[in-house]
Amino acid sequence: MPPKNRFAEMLPELTAIRHDFHENPELLFDVHRTAAKVAEFCRAIGCDEVVEGIGRTGVVAVIKGKTDTKGRVIGLRADRDALPISEETNLPHASKTPGKMHACGHDGHTAMLLGAAKHLASTREFEGSVAVIFQPAEEGGAGGKAMVDDGMMDRWNIREVYGMHNMPGLPPGQFATRAGPLMAATAYFEITVEGRGAHAAKPHEGIDPVVIGAQLVTALQSISSRNTDPMKQVVVSTTIFQAGEAMNVIPQRAYLRGTVRTLDAGVREMVERRFRQICDGAAKMFEAEVRLDYQRRYPATVNHAAQTKVAADLARAIAGPNGVDDDIAPTMGGEDFSYMLEARPGAFIFIGNGDSAGLHHPAYDFNDEIIPVGIQYWALIAERAGLAR
Q1: In the chain, which segments carry CATH 3.40.630.10?
Q2: Are 84 and 27 in contact (CB under 8 A)?
Q3: At 17, which helix (H) or strand (E)?
């Protein structure tokens, strides 16, 4: 079903807003310009309450429906931050800030939610209240956690929360989601191998951190191949291996860095435990010092079954019965909407961005044509979610 005329009519205004955000990208919590623009827009369209500074630079706007049903408050969330990437699109609205760009579509997510807020504030054809949530620092800063920790859910009595992200490769305006784990828990590791430097011609006089590091890379791969149930997913990727400066010198130390992705909570615990055992074992075996800094980041994004069914059903009302995949395979990317789903029932859904460059790619750009579809989805969630249960 194509977007209704009233949503399509909003496209020029929202496209201009999206392009302005794209031209002026901001990182992590340093999204002050974007926050001010969002708050100004929400006040201008008549939101009943607009609060800035939630989770440092988050914005929450509340819109009351036709009946004041205090037990029904639906949260709709969009992320706002950009990435430290140099843009290579050559578009008229390309980033004006070197080294920063909206390479994940958060500018589009914000534009869609602003459009939904405008629609909801003008129609108010829903019960209870809707809290539109504009979150900072999704790209590694855990802005979602910051907003939850700041008391957002309790302050506005949010009962359910929904999120949406664009997906390159999925046809424009189609949707995909699943109940249960949808996106992975993330972790980062840094390993320092402290050996003993020596002349490369006399390796017996040193403790070679390069050899130890190579053994660690291989041993860490055994976590996924030999310690994990084959039916459960885990990714262990060593992405940085740095050591040495000269071809005839065994260096004093080596550095390994990388990421871990898991979907299952038990697997997440096991992986960290095995990391420590492997590093301790390598230190003993090679008589070296091996220091591990293992940093847990976002938990898995786990959709709640009832809310996921609602999200998928309402998406079908827009995209048709064949336009929604409600059992998409989980992705090993991370998403800090996970913190909001730990705090309240809800669901995260993907909306097709079409044949664009991939997320986090310097040639990526959000597809403006899907803005009305996203607005319509948000409107249906606000109007219908939580009513049948």
Answers
A1: 5-182+301-384
A2: yes
A3: helix 11-23
Q: Answer yes or no: CATH 3.20.20.70 is held by domain 185-296.
A: no
Rounded Cα gap, residues 4 and 88, in angstroms = 34
Residue 85's nearest CA partner among 139, 165, 136, 20 is 139
Q: Rounded to whole angstroms, how far apart are CA atoms 5 and 14?
A: 14
Helix axes 371-384, 106-123, angle to 10 degrees: 50
Instruction: Report helix, strand or coil for 126.
Output: coil
Report the alpha-carbon distance of residue 305 to residue 388 in Å, rounded. 14
228 token code pair: 């994990």
Cα-based distances in Å from 50 to 20, 221, 234, 337: 21, 49, 41, 21
Contact 129, 62 (CB under 8 A): yes
H helices present in 84-151, as ranges: 106-123, 143-149
- Output phi, psi for 128, to 5 deg: 70, -140
pLDDT tens digits along 225-259: 999 999 999 999 999 999 999 999 999 999 999 99
Pick from 353, 347, 341: nearest CA to 312: 347
Q: Tokens standing for 20?
A: 């302005």
pLDDT digits (tens, 9 = 90+) for 24-52: 999 999 999 999 999 999 999 999 999 99
**Is the CB of residue 137 less than 8 Å from the CB of residue 61?**
no
Contact 3, 373 (CB under 8 A): yes
CA distances from 234 to 136, 303, 331, 362 (A): 28, 19, 11, 27
CB neighbour class for 130 (10 Å; exposed up to 12, middle 13-18, buried from 19):
buried
CATH code for the structural domain at 5-182+301-384: 3.40.630.10
Where in the chain are all domains bearing CATH 3.30.70.360? 185-296
Determine the length of the chain.
389
The predicted model gives 10-26 an average pLDDT of 98
Q: Give the separation between CA 173 and CA 353, rounded to whole angstroms.
A: 7
